[in-house]
Design brief:
Strand order of the largest sheet: 3-4-5
CATH class of the largest domain: Mainly Alpha
Shape: elongated
Number of domains: 4
Strand content: 5-15%
Oligomer: single chain
Structural class: mainly alpha
Largest sheet: 3 strands, antiparallel
CATH architecture of the largest domain: Up-down Bundle
């Protein structure tokens, strides 16, 4: 009994050693391994050549027979390989043997049937195939970066012979579809559709990142340019949050065009991923860190906002704990993850891009906890809006307030990540949706909290007025847009004591002193009105300052507060 490999049939023992040898040859390129295939009188062997700069080194001149029945020989061949690489190689050998045994039990094809003969092609098992048609198999797991959802194919020409590659003169099967996409085949000719999904995703991510950067960088510059803004706690948190998006976008662009694009366009072992350089691994660590940092800063924003609403008069005196969480938190999980990658030889390869199974949760778990915490914060804020805040006749209903708050807080809290938490296998629509959500979040938060913010507009108009010599513009105290209310929501209580971040240059020192005095006079009103102020600011209520004197003071409008007191002694 014999089995076919490529264009010849071999006895089963010889077939097993020959196919196992070529499994090794096809998996490990000549630039990476010292072993070379040789057909000697003893049979097919793998022979080690002279010493060199090889990733997989063997004693020069040593000879190995790729026989899975010889455990000692298998151990020696696998010694320089990682555990996963050895497993892939032996799986390929075992699959070839199973193919041989299965095809021996198939009925013999009719001589009147024009067909291509059953064969093992080096990676896959193809049965008898009608002339002029195409045979398909599921992509093997041991093909690098292959998707088990895709199929490889082998073309049978009308004359009953397998397709021969014009460059090599050998029978050829197409396994590129296992990585790059599906194919369409007709009975007369075969046309491979080069979808290049990965390049589509790269350019989609580039576009989204450039849009976000074009909004985030000016937003940070505006916050830092005006002292009245940058001294506020909530604005300092916004700056850190925006900076995390900027860093993530820049690293993502570098990774896509230095590593991913290079991997697709460079031959085999010449890509940065295969060379496994230190720079590539460092860039990968930065990529994982910056991605996690955005989740941690989302949590910091949510925690600060929730605390401001639930405990209106327990504003943090310092943001050090927030800085530690937002900056140090991601480093803890990322460093542990990197140490595991570097210390285990099986994981320290291919620029660390390979999944390391359960250890991936070192990164995923903190990110998910940040999202779940923000879901809780949002739910509690909506609960307070609907149950604890009494509506004013001139204000929108609690339900309208809740709807406004929900739409504005979703990008800040990262709730939009919900639909893409679960990743289905090899689904293009999911990858597109994930990239759009991930790389446009920075654009949305910069629009809501800076670009469309009334207070920011006021400072910019004042700056323009000073440059042009026109009268100064006074930012309105009674904000009219939902985005302005959200930006003011994080106003800390200490603003009154520290001359208030919302006190503009038009106020004199005397006015500030009057503000402090009136704040003391309004003590009985403050506890009840502070939460109301925060919640009304959250939902874009215009009537807040006209209704609550303490809110008028907190907004810097002490003249309006005095007027309210005179009407309501």
């Amino acid at each position: 009994m014999s089995c076919r490999y490529q264009h010849m049939s071999y006895d089963v023992p010889l077939f097993k050693v020959l196919t196992c040898s070529f499994c090794y040859v096809y998996m490990f390129k000549p630039e990476a391994t010292q072993l070379r295939f040789d057909f000697t009188r003893a049979g097919p062997v793998l022979k080690a050549g002279p010493e060199g700069n090889f990733k997989y080194s063997y004693p020069p001149g040593s000879v190995y027979m790729a026989d899975l029945d010889n455990s000692s020989m298998v151990t020696q061949i696998c010694e320089p390989l990682s555990e996963s690489e050895c497993e892939k190689w032996t799986t390929c050998c075992q699959t070839a043997t199973k193919c041989c045994l299965r095809q021996q039990n198939l009925p013999t094809a009719s001589q009147n049937w024009s067909h291509c003969p059953r064969t093992w092609d080096g990676f896959g098992c193809f049965d008898d195939t009608s002339a002029g048609s195409t045979a398909y198999i599921s992509c093997p797991s041991y093909v690098e970066h292959a998707s088990d959802q895709e199929t490889a194919y082998k073309v049978c020409w009308p004359n009953g012979t397998w397709y021969v590659h014009p460059h090599t003169g050998k029978q050829w099967s197409n396994y590129s579809t296992c990585v790059h996409g599906k194919v369409k085949v007709s009975s007369k000719r075969i046309t491979e559709v080069k979808i290049k999904d990965q390049m589509v995703l790269i350019y989609l991510g580039l576009g989204c990142n450039l849009i976000s950067l074009s909004l985030l960088i000016p937003s940070c510059a505006i916050f830092l340019a005006f002292r009245q803004l940058r001294i506020q706690q909530r604005v300092r948190l916004h700056i850190c949050f925006f900076s995390s998006f900027i860093a993530s976008a820049i690293i993502a662009i570098l990774w896509d065009f230095i590593v991913v694009s290079d991997r697709m366009n460079s031959p085999g072992d010449e890509s940065a991923v295969q060379q496994n350089t230190g720079g590539c691994k460092f860039l990968y660590v930065l990529k994982r860190y910056t991605q996690s940092a955005t989740y941690f800063w989302m949590f910091c924003e949510g925690f600060y906002l929730h605390r401001l609403i639930v405990r209106a008069f327990e504003i943090p005196k310092s943001l050090i704990i927030y800085y530690f969480i937002g900056i140090g938190g991601p480093w803890i999980s990322t460093i542990v993850y990197a140490i595991i990658k570097a210390s285990v030889s099986e994981y320290d390869q291919k620029c660390w891009v390979n999944n390391i199974n359960g250890f991936e949760w070192l990164i995923y778990t903190p990110n998910l906890l940040c999202l779940f915490a923000n879901v809780f914060f949002l739910g509690n804020i909506l609960y307070i809006l609907l149950t604890q805040l009494q509506s004013h006749p001139n204000e929108p209903s609690g339900y309208r307030r809740a709807i406004k708050a929900t739409f504005v807080l979703i990008p800040l809290f990262g709730i939009q990540w919900g639909p893409v938490i679960y990743r289905p296998a090899n689904t293009m629509w999911y990858e597109v949706l994930r990239i759009v959500i991930q790389h446009t979040q920075g654009a949305f938060v910069s629009l809501i909290f800076c670009i469309f913010n009334g207070e920011v507009h006021g400072h910019l108009k004042n700056c323009f007025s000073r440059i042009s010599g026109r009268p100064l513009y006074r930012p309105r105290r009674e904000l009219s847009t939902t985005s302005e209310m959200i930006l003011l929501l994080n106003q800390d209580k200490t603003s009154i004591k520290n001359n208030g971040p919302e006190m503009h240059s038009a106020h004199s020192k005397k006015g500030v002193n009057n503000l402090r005095e009136q704040s003391q006079l309004l003590g009985p009103f403050r506890q009840s009105s502070e939460k109301a102020r925060n919640l009304r600011l959250l939902t874009g209520t215009i009537a807040t300052s006209r209704t609550f004197p303490a809110v008028a003071i907190a907004n810097g409008n002490f003249f309006l507060a005095r007027k309210i007191l005179k009407k309501n002694p």
